[in-house]
Structures are given as structure tokens and as C-alpha cells.
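Structure ticket #2291
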Amino acid sequence: MEALLSAMVACGSDRESLAWRALAQVVREAGAGELWPPQGAGAGSGLAELRELAVLLDELAEREPRIRDALADWLRHDAPSHSPPSASVSSNVIGGSAVLHGPNVQAHLIHGGVHIHQQAAPPVQHPLPVPRQLPPVREQFVDREGDIRVLDGMRDRRPAHAAPLLVVSGFAGVGKTSLVSRWLHRNASSYPDGHLYADLGGSSGADSSGAEESGPLAPATVLEGFLFALGAPSVPSSVAGRVSLWRTLTSGLRLAVLLDNAFTAAQVRPLRLGTPTGLTVVTSRSDLTGLRVDGASVHRLGALPAESAVELLAIGAGGGRVARDPAAAREVVTLCGRLPLAVCLASAQLAARPHRSVSALAESLAQGQGSLDTLRVDGEAVMRTALDMSYGLLPPEAAALYRRMGLLPTDRYDTYLLAAVACAAGGSGPGAGADGAAPGAGGTEATAPEAGTTDGTPRDAVAADGTADASAAGGGGWGRGCAPRRWDRGGRT
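Resolution: structure written out below.
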């Protein structure tokens, strides 16, 4: 019926056209002559008459196949094939080559206004990549399985409602960052929301001008980087605002944060995660005992066992020379204090000089200031630099005690020995405190081992560094006219 009505409207008002004449013949055959001719075709009043005629013809076509065939023949051969531009009704057909832009309404007769309210599509959100900021795993890595088991146990023993906080402390170059990075890489599946990393610059200290950029990194600066890494579009200007946003964005996330080379507990507190689903790991040359109040578990990392240190020496230098001269290899790693950094530097020297024997390297390390000045990278004595940076952060009393430690003929340091050295140096003045601790003992956490251990501090590295500092300081406070003495491992001067 709609197609018939559209064709009748498209015929226009000329009743003498071939289309109208053919339709008139069909109408007379259908017995609807009283409705013919329709008045005002195309006008508002004539449209109702055309619709009435179309309805009648449609009903007749349903009852009489003859009328149905006649109308179909008229639509195929006589009715206009398309509507003129002035027609008020058009056929509801979209061709295959049509291109539609914007909102479209496909309909036939529409009365009244058509209003299309289109809601703007939300902007497409491209998810940020999961942050994976951990340092790469070092190829030169041996042993430490026992330390890894300790870290596993410390993490697993945490209460379910508490935010885990682990501290790994140890001497400069002992391999704290390498150990923790490898451990976190190994447990990456436990933290699918990512790893965040920041070097807090705890060993850098401030220069003589007091410039902040040369000292430990401010928590506000670290938080800014972390927040942007997590997708924050903007960052509050105040530290308190950044801490609040940091805790909000990380709530419920299974995220691991490595705060490397921390200086103080106060530097760490704004940066630790507050959610029990995450993990915060801190490395420092100090034990950061202040974080124990916050529930931190502390693991002090010691030097490598001698066998593991020799294995590390052989990895980079080629095992042939090391295997041919095991005694010299043990001498080299002993002179390196069995510190992974120093051993790797010694291994690099062997690799750079393929014809140099291990015994020749041992002799070179034993001369002058020992491994501290001999082991260099691009001309820089990195071990001495690392120790000097730590030494520069010590308060005066602790620095003096550190220099005296380098003169002792022992590889064992504990609180009682340090207190005795402090008392011997200055009598009752700079002596032990009421609790028997050496003055500045808190400042020597980076160099002194736990009491009762025998391998906590690499003796040769401390001896070389401490003796040099004592000489530069005119005896390190041992007393007027008392010159510093250098001891060998047999206790001889």
C-alpha cells in the first residue's frame, strides 16, 4: 500500500499523463470509479483522498488476484521510477553505492519535526603500559640462594593485613641492588600491576655548595615520577597531596616498589606502599633501624663466600687462568673483600688483558692502596669512589672510628671492639656511652657488621680505605704523636 501511495503522489497533478490514465483504467476495473478522479493530488487535502484510494485498491488486490496483478503491472511499467525533487514523499530505498554521513532516518512518511539528540562519544582511553622499571638482571651473578630464601621467608611471614616493607642493607658494592632486582624479577607473576624503581641517591651526599640536586633525592620528586608512571594526568604541588594521591592510586594494586640506595627512614616513609597487596623493598648502606618501628624486616647482606667469589671471578675472565692458579684467585678475591662489585672489576681487568696471569693481578692489587685504586672503570676508581661517598656522609665521630677500623689487624668487628677502640683513642672524652656503644655507632651502620659475625665487613677493603683516610687525617684521632700503622693479615705491622 505504501509503495502504491508513493507512486500515486509521484505522478503529480497532470491527470492526462500516461501514468494517471493507466491507473484510471485499473480503478475502473476494480469498481472504485466513485473515487476517481482524486482531487488535489500532491496537496495537503488531496493526500487523504489518495490514501483512501490506495487503501481500497490494496484491499481489493488482496481479495482478487486480477486486481493485484494489474496494480503490480502498473507499478512496474507505468508508475514514475523516482520522485521529482518537489515531491513530499519518496521511496524508502538506499542504494548499494550510497554513502551516509552523520545521523540518518530511514522512513517513509514523517509528520512533524524530527529532532536528533546525539550524545558525544567518550574519548578513547588507551591503557598505559604496565610499568616495569626494575634494573636488568646481571649476567654475572652467583650464589645468594640463601639470601633469596631469606627474602622469601620475610615476605611470607608478613601479616595478611600489613603492607610488606623489606630492607636489604650492606656494604658498598656487596650486590644489594642486583640481589633484590633478581628476586623481584623471579617473582614478577606475583605483581602483575607492575614494578616501580627509584634510585634515592642516599650515598651521594651534598656538595660544598649545598646544592640539593647533588644530595639524596627528595620524596616529592620520586612521587611525581611514580604518579605519572601510574597514569595520573596531573600531580599535586604539595608533598602531602602527592602522598595522598599515591596511596589512592596504589590501593589494592599488586605492585612492587624498589627504593634503591636510601639515605634515611624519613626519606622512605612517604614512598612506601600502604596496601597489603603490594610490596616495598628498600636497599641502603645503613640498616635504617628507624623503619623497624614501621614494621620493616631487615636483612643484612654479607660478602660472598670465597668459593662463590672465585666462581664470579672466573665468569667474566674465562675460567682457564683462574682454574690454573686457584691460590692466586683466592688471593685476588680476598683483596677485593669478596665484594661482587670489586670481584667483577678484577674479572674485567683479566678479560681486558688475556695474557696477564691471575698471580700478576693479585700482586698488583696488593701494592699501594690495594684494590681501591687498582680496580677502575673508564679511569675511575669506582670502589674508592663508593667508599668515599659513604665516608663523606658520616658524622665526625663515626668517621674517626671508621678510620681506626682500617688500622686493626682483624677481620671481626663488633660493638665491644668498636667501643674499646673509641675509648683507647680519647679516654673518657670520646669514649663509650652509657649503654656501652661506641660513639657514632649509628652512623657506622653502613660499614660495621652485626655483632658476633665474622664476615660482615670486607676487612681488606675497609683497611685500605680506612688507612688512607687515617693517614690523610693525621692519625685519625689516636692521640698526639701516634702515627697510624698498617697491619697485614698476620697481625704484623
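Closing remark: The chain has a mean pLDDT of 75.
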